[in-house]
């Protein structure tokens, strides 16, 4: 199994493509620049099976509709942010005045209390990691040794909590109870910036000290 990090849009939001040897793949957080993302998929001759969202802020969902329609694949999102895909006031594109309103169709699958998801040959664990947003999720690929953490945990930082629905105490609780319990060698794939590891953040992330 391989993962590919593709920064997209003005905020350089990390989209992740996770692929297997049979060239099937999953797309996490297609935030913008659908053409760039599509070109990468075609160049690698990949076959997308689904779009999966860590959360639904505008910079993580801007290319959802174009990619969904191009490859005719379903979209997965947590129930607490199901309305955000269709409402620019909720996903932040209206608040931040980014030049366009991000508004699409509803997700095909709404995640509630699932702990594991199986799509094609992919099997991975789901962890609720709210705090940055109320429906934030992280996705742990145990055998491959990485977790897609969205905007919960970054290299040397954590997600902002000053947006609607954000909660700083809840975010710290999520990180400690859902992410820092993973093996220290686990690679953390964040929504922005470079990859890190659980061990590195345990040792040096200033936002996690003294929790």
UniProtKB/TrEMBL annotation:
Names of required cofactors: Zn(2+)
Organism in which the protein naturally occurs: Cytobacillus praedii
Domain of life: Bacteria
Official protein name in the record: MBL fold metallo-hydrolase
Domain Metallo-beta-lactamase positions: 12-192
Keyword Hydrolase appears in the UniProt entry: yes
Molecular function in Gene Ontology: hydrolase activity; metal ion binding
InterPro entries found in the cross-reference section: MBL_Glyoxalase_II, Metallo-B-lactamas, RibonucZ/Hydroxyglut_hydro
Keywords assigned: Hydrolase, Metal-binding, Zinc
